[in-house]
Structure formats: C-alpha cells, structure tokens
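Exercise 7. Predict the joint structure of the components listed below.
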Amino acid sequence: MKPDKLLLIGGSAGSLQVMLSLLTELGSDFPVPVLVVLHRNSAFDSALEELFFTRTALVTKEVEEKEVPSAGTVYLCPADYHVLVELDHSFSLDYSERVHFSRPSIDVAFRSAADIYGSGTIAVLLSGGNADGAEGLAYVKERGGVTIVQDPMTAEVPYMPQQAITRMQPDHVLPAEAISVVIRGLAAYK
Amino acid sequence: MEFNPIQYEELELLLTDIYKRYGYDFSEYSKASLQRRVYRLFTLDKFPSFAEFRYRLQTDALYFRRFVEEITVNVTEMLRDPSFYRALRTTILPVLATYPFIRIWHAGCATGEEVYSMAILLKEAGLLHKSLLYGTDINPLVIEKARKGIFPVSQMQKYSENYIQSGGLKDFSAYYTANYHLAKFDNSLTGRMIFSTHNLVSDYSFNEFQLILCRNVLIYFERDLQSKVIQLFDNSLENFGFLALGSKESLRFSPIAGRYKQVGKEKIWRKTHEAG
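Solution:
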C-alpha cells in the first residue's frame, strides 16, 4: 500500500548529529517513511549509510531509482543526485544542475514531495550553512504540509534555519531535542 | 512562493499536444523530473498562464525546439566517476583491442564530454586510429556543441583531476588548446567522432557496436521505456559486447538481464549470448 505521509529531513553543515539523534528518538515503530536530504561531499561514502544503520532502529538505505518507500524505513539521498517523488510515490533520481550549489538539493526534494503528498508532507529543516531548503519549506506549507525548523539558536550552523524563518512562517520552530516528539505526534495523527 | 500551475494533468495535456504536433513522445519519461524542467522553463520565459504556454508550444515550432533543449538534462563532465574510466582502461579496452575495428556508441551524450574522454583513453591505448565513436542525443543544440569540442577552461582543473584519478599518466592539458576562457580539444580526437541527433524513444538501431555507453539517461525514463531502450541497445550490441550505464542505473529489472554478466564493480555488463 502506498503510504499517505512522508517525513523529509533536510540538513547541511552541523546537522548530522541532530539527524541521528532525531531518527533514534523516532523509535523502531515509526509509521511513516523518511527521506533524508543531507548535503554530502564524497561521491562514495557508504560510511554514512553505515553510520545511520548503526545509530537508528529504523531500516536505513540509499534511495534507489523507482523504489516505492515503505513505512519505518529511512531513505538517504545518494551523493550527487537530486531525489524527486513520482505520482505512484516511487522515488526518481535526477542529475540536473545543482540548486544552491547542492545536489541533492533540499528544495528539489521538498517541492517534489509536497506536490505528491500535499498535507501528508512533514518537512524538517536543520542546521546548515546555505540557503537551500527555505523555498522548499515554503512550498510544503503552501501545499498544506507541516513545516518544522530547528531553532537557529540551537543549530551548530544557524544560517539555513534562519533563512527559512526569514522567508516563511514555519508551523514549528523547535530546539533539536523537541523535534522528535512533535513528529511522532504528527505521524500518528490520522 | 507561487503555486506550481503545471501539475500532472497539465503536463499530460502538453505531452499529448507535443506528440500530435511534433511527433516527439515524452509520455514515458519520469514525470517528476519532467514536470520540474517544464515548470522551470515556464518561469524562465515568464509565461503569465498555463494556457499561453500551451498555445505557444502548439503554434511555434521554434519555441518547441527551445522546449526540447531546455527540458532535457544536459549536465555532464569529462571522465565523470574516474573509477569507471579506470575500469574501462584496465578491463574493457584490452578486450576491444583484439578487434580489427572498434565501434562505440555514446547514447544521450549531451555536449559530448564523455565522448572526448573515451577518445583520450583510446588514444592512450593506441586504439584511436581504428576506432569510431558515435555520439547521439535528442537535443540538436548539444550535438552542435559536441561537434566543436570546445569546453570552458574553468572546468579543466576538475577534468585534469578526474584524468589522473582514472589512471591517466600524461599531462591532460596536452589534449587541448586554451584560448581565453575556452579549451578546444585536439582534432586528432574529433576526427574519429560522428555526432548526430537520435531519439531513443522513437529511432531505431543504426549500427552494431562493441561498446555502448548510456549514463544517467535511463533515470529519466519510466520502467517500460527503460526496458525498450535497453532492448534497443541489445539489438545494437555485438555478441560479447559491453553495455555501460550510470552509477545508479541497473540492468536488473530488464528482460534481457539474464543474457548479460556484470564486469567487476562498475556499471558495465557484457553480453554473453544473443537472444534465443
């Protein structure tokens, strides 16, 4: 069955630890698939996947093209590809131009997911040093999804969440440790 | 933030119009990527409404040409994924060397950077004189660029690094002449290349090859079209020839997978026998 919700977590510099704690706190029974859009440098760091795998109770894997997401699985965007969502909820990979110097781009994934999941989209933007994500988050909100931004005061690199707050009004601005509670509530809500 | 006026229904309308008017069939392209590209063009050219965009596409053949140029993804680089090129050097070229004449097809080559990369590898293996490289793309504009062999000088440092990582032992700059911000690649390379437009959706096989490369093209196609295109490659590949795909692409879901064997870790497969 196609899930009707998707949790997206976008982050860049300073977001990895927050992401790992957040995913751990979601627990092994989290009922929604998760797409992680993390800016990464190396084209062949399977170490990152390994790290997610050992730190979270959820199944973690790199997105494969045409894969339909399952609940309780964490999908990592591969280095150097944008990830988009198709009408049948499967993921697509895209090697087009970088957006905000980034591929994968958070904006690209957020926008595309919001087109398909609409109000079932839950998008979280964490620490980072560039403006990627702000526009995507605004689009998620416009499509009726829920938007959560890490409180820049608690972010290792505040620029990215700050850009989002300047650009739009997120539904929640939360310190890192409070995000998982809100997400669990949203994911359980029918 | 503006609501994206080109949702899936609008996209379907456009694709139907285009097929009827121009014969280009985009109906089996992956829609998410295509929708994003079409929306990008719509905003880039500042159309006030979807209706006007649609009308322009229906009535202006020149604008349709721009549409094809802009919605296809033309991002490429020289020696992209150096480990892949290293595998070509060490594993594939020694096999190709045994043929009296080598024919290679780069399908969906965009501006041709990968064709030039291959020509450099062949030259260094002493095989270029008996090789022909065919580069094709749906987009006529990029094919014109590929023919010229002129690329931005600003990319050369990156390409030079890729070259070294791929096992290149020479001075990469020996392959081009820099003039202000442009680098023109050597005529000895261009002389072994044939560029032409070719639509993987509707055009047929046009030769038999020992090596076909099609990297980061299939990701833009839906599964059925992927299978059809792979079938086209199978028809165009000699027995024991090689097929190379992009780093996230696979033959796994294709009906011909059983007749192909992956060579090493890279996305390179060898045809083991013809269809029964």
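Discussion. Residues 8-71 of chain B form one domain.
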